[in-house]
Design goal:
It is a single chain. The chain is mainly α. The protein has three domains: 141 residues, no CATH class; 155 residues; 106 residues, 2-Layer Sandwich (Histidine-containing Protein, Chain: A). A four-stranded antiparallel β-sheet has the order 1-4-2-3. The protein is elongated, with a radius of gyration of 27 Å. The N and C termini lie far apart (57 Å). The relative contact order is 0.10.
Length: 415
């Protein structure tokens, strides 16, 4: 069986393995896991532990494959980031890769040992890693596919930028950018961090990448702008890092969690240090996914501001006391939701509608002049929601309109 050929390579060569090796290992581990499930190993006290080992190998092989892919392609991705950030990611990425290699080696060694305890002898001699040698592209074919003119697809570019920004806001709200000690992070699983939540974010980025590749990938920077071209990298890198995190969380929830400690004869936790796994999730994969998502958020907002259709609208001042803290806060939430600049204009002076303090100052000026209306300037989408907000008297005496449910969400998070 090919899985055991791969196992032999691990145990006999004891080397760091590349992307091609992990691609084969995750596929062969899945085949063996399905074979074991088909024969009832999951419900058999004799073979349950062996099946758990194989499932764990598959989890770590997928995580290692995702990380290996990002590390191998980092210079091709070429994210626009400070040199120290790039060095930090590559150094910590290699450390994470070393840790994953060590876990996979330990699990494969345990799998072979468990087979021996079940009376199955394996001859692992003679296995070589030559067929898994890294193939490095030192020369590339010229990029000579005719580039398309995308002047007519600004709406699609705006859609992709808006979608990216919405995903990045969710990542930030979940505090994935905070490095958390393993003991503390363990308490966050599964209530705040779990496989399902991370999979939703990963799938959202995957869908966005597909849209990007369909509509924008072959455009050149002169046509769509460097910020649009750079967004592809900032979709792909966090997507792979989130998938790495998802499979590590899957492993923890299924094989390390105390909820499963009573099942079967073996203890995966004896082989895999759960603090190592939790650290790889919180302090590496989620942390750097968040970092690259925040870089992408800035790029998306730059795109949105550049392509925004700016106009003005006259709206009433909140009754009865004008722009005090609550209506000012709600205005900033609306503006922040759409990610483009907006201004409150009083007597020809512009105030930043992202800033509560600026709006309070504008409100004081409007009150001094006894104004009943003010102007807002910004993107049409922002102004449309501000019209809804003003139509409800900025929610001073009324419920938040269903169209502005994001205000309720943001308010509850702050509370």
């Amino acid at each position: 069986m090919p899985f055991f050929r791969l196992a032999g390579i691990v145990l006999l060569n004891r080397r760091d393995f590349n992307n091609q090796f992990y691609f084969n290992l995750m596929n062969e581990a899945e085949k063996l896991e399905v074979f074991l499930d088909d024969h009832g190993a999951k419900e058999n006290i004799t073979w349950y532990y062996f099946r758990e080992i194989i499932a764990s190998i598959r989890n770590f092989a997928i995580s290692a494959f995702q990380l290996s892919h990002v590390l191998y392609r980092y210079h091709e991705y070429n994210p626009v980031e400070p040199a120290q950030y790039g060095a930090e990611f590559l150094n910590q990425g290699q450390t994470a890769m070393d840790n994953l290699n060590g876990v996979v080696m330990a699990l494969i060694n345990e799998a072979v040992g468990e087979l021996g305890r079940r009376g199955c002898a394996l001859d692992l001699a003679g296995q070589t890693a030559t067929e898994f040698k890294e193939i490095i592209a030192t020369v590339k074919l010229p990029r000579n596919v005719e580039m398309r003119n995308y002047k007519s697809s600004e709406r699609m570019i705006m859609h992709i930028a808006e979608s990216y920004r919405r995903i990045s806001v969710k990542v930030h709200r979940d505090h994935y950018g905070k490095r958390t000690p393993p003991d503390e992070f363990e308490q966050m699983i599964p209530a705040r961090v779990n496989e399902t939540k991370v999979k939703i974010l990963e799938s959202s980025l995957h869908n966005l990448q597909s849209e990007y590749d369909t509509h924008i990938r072959t455009a050149d920077s002169a046509t769509v702008g460097e910020d649009v071209i750079s967004l592809r990298t900032l979709i792909s890198m966090p997507m792979h890092l989130l998938e790495m995190a998802r499979w590590l969380i899957h492993f923890y929830e299924r094989h390390e969690s105390e909820a499963y400690a009573h099942v079967g004869q073996g203890e995966i936790s004896r082989i895999v240090d759960k603090k190592l796994v939790l650290g790889l999730i919180s302090n590496f994969s989620l942390f750097f996914a968040h970092r690259y998502m925040m870089m992408g958020k800035r790029a998306a907002e730059q795109i949105m501001s550049r392509l925004a259709r700016i106009s003005r609208v006259t709206l009433p001042v909140p009754k009865p006391v004008g722009f005090h803290a609550r209506p000012a806060y709600y205005v900033t939430i609306v503006v922040e939701e759409h990610g483009t600049d907006a201004f409150l204009i009083v007597d020809g002076r512009k105030f930043d509608a992202r800033s509560v303090l600026d709006i309070l100052e504008a409100g004081g000026m409007a009150a001094d002049k006894e104004l009943e209306t003010v102007e807002f300037e910004g993107d049409e989408r922002t102004l449309a929601d501000l019209k809804i907000l003003a139509g409800s008297n900025y929610c001073e005496n009324e419920q938040i309109p269903k169209e502005l449910n994001y205000i309720r969400i943001a308010r509850n998070i702050m509370a």
